[in-house]
Write a structure and sequence with these properties.
single chain, 385 residues, alpha/beta, Udp-n-acetylmuramoylalanyl-d-glutamate--2,6- Diaminopimelate Ligase, Chain: A, domain 1, Alpha-Beta Plaits, 3 domains, five-stranded mixed β-sheet, 11 helices, binds zinc ion
Length: 385
């Protein structure tokens, strides 16, 4: 049976807390990392109904997407609404963990699960995050010392690329130099031109490891004055980022895509609504789990014919669909909860795969979308023009 700390390590590996927005509040809200977890529950929100479900299923961990305590608090008294929830969890032996904006931008993240659910393929981030900045180190070393130098540079953090470490590229050549008066050359004599068979070693260096790698180079390189270059590399857009854009298997009328979204997303009272010509064809579709309205311009620039997200507002929506003489991007507005709930199933599947049968992983089916009623107007929207 894993400890809470083991499960947190897995989640932090997928949803690095360093990726969270500065205003966000992610990670462990309550619970003892040393205690073991037999059962856990995943939910979008930590609200009375999901906390009750955590307790009634004898789960020791509630993982949610939304932070319980997004606005800072200085205490959790039990006569405060949120404080009472924290008390209930601690008394019930329940730990609470949050992965929010760090899960939004992860690869795969919240919007990947949404895009998968509605059948989009060939996904790419709508607003890509640049990968971690790195330098390229080029160093020349006598060939007999090259492997030892690569080992030392790798130990200091150079040469890590994805799931590989100690990555280096080498080529052999001839180095030449003349030691001047006062030099103490490892090879050669003062005043005489020397030629040495050297290896040019190239390795990537994360910017944060610059000093450590250069120190390691000086410590291991046999020369008094090692020749090296540290070149700043341009960051490239990575696989992580906010929102996703992808393609449907075939172009379909907006009306059909909206019906498909309503049928495949978790059911809510409000269902799914759209702005735009119901008959227009859509194939390239952008999505963003949660409130993605601010990404509409990125979606349009990415060539999206429709943008599926939540919490869209009147004025930006009018502007988006009326631009280019009424041929703008269609907007598809689902319940905030319904756009994020697919992520729970994706995380549950990954947890089951990683943790095996050591933990029972459940997904809450409780609809925590706050809207409980929806009455279509007597005159249908067909009259709107
Ligand atoms: Zn959200």
């Amino acid at each position: 049976m894993p400890r809470l700390a083991d499960i947190i390590a897995v989640l932090d590996g997928w949803f690095d807390p360093r990726w969270a927005e500065s205003w966000d509040a992610v990670g462990l809200v309550c619970g003892d990392p040393a205690e073991s977890v037999e059962r856990l529950l995943l939910a979008v929100d930590a609200v009375p109904s999901t906390i009750r479900e955590t307790l009634s299923t004898s789960s020791q961990l509630l993982i949610t997407h939304h932070p319980l305590l997004l606005t800072p608090v200085h205490g959790v008294p039990a006569d405060d609404a949120k404080g009472a929830l924290v008390h209930r969890m601690i008394r019930g032996g329940v730990a609470h963990f949050v992965a929010h904006t760090n899960a939004d931008v992860a690869d795969p993240g919240v919007s990947d699960a949404l895009a998968d659910r509605v059948g989009l393929q060939a996904l790419r981030p709508l607003e890509p995050h640049a990968d971690e900045p790195f330098d390229k180190l080029v160093v020349y070393v006598p060939t007999s010392d090259a492997q030892r130098l690569i080992d030392a540079l790798a130990a200091a953090g150079a040469g890590a690329i994805g799931a590989y470490d100690r990555c280096a590229w080498t080529v052999e050549g001839i180095g030449t130099f003349r030691p001047r008066l006062g030099a103490q050359p490892t090879i050669g004599r003062v005043g005489e031109i020397e030629q040495v068979v050297e290896t040019r070693v190239e390795m990537v260096v994360p910017v944060g490891r610059r000093r450590a790698v250069v120190d390691a180079l000086h410590a291991v390189h046999p020369y008094e004055e090692p020749a090296f270059d540290l070149l700043a590399a341009r960051p490239v857009p990575g696989r992580r980022g906010t929102g996703r854009v992808g393609e449907l298997a075939r172009a379909v009328p907006l009306r059909e895509f909206v019906a498909h979204a309503a049928a495949t997303l978790p059911a809510t009272v409000g269902g799914v609504r759209a702005a735009g010509d119901p008959e227009r064809l859509v194939r390239t579709v952008a999505v963003c789990g949660g409130s993605g309205g601010s990404l509409a311009e990125d979606a349009r620039r990415a060539g999206a014919e429709a943008f599926l997200t939540a919490d869209l507002k009147h004025h930006p929506a009018v502007e988006a669909v009326t631009e280019r003489g009424g041929d703008g991007m269609a907007l598809v507005d689902a319940a905030h909860w319904a756009t994020e709930a697919p992520w729970l199933d994706a995380v549950a599947a990954r947890l089951r795969e990683t943790l095996g049968t050591t933990v029972e992983v459940r997904v809450s089916r409780r609809v925590t979308d706050p809207w409980t009623l929806h009455a279509p107007s007597p005159e249908s929207s067909e009259t709107t023009e």
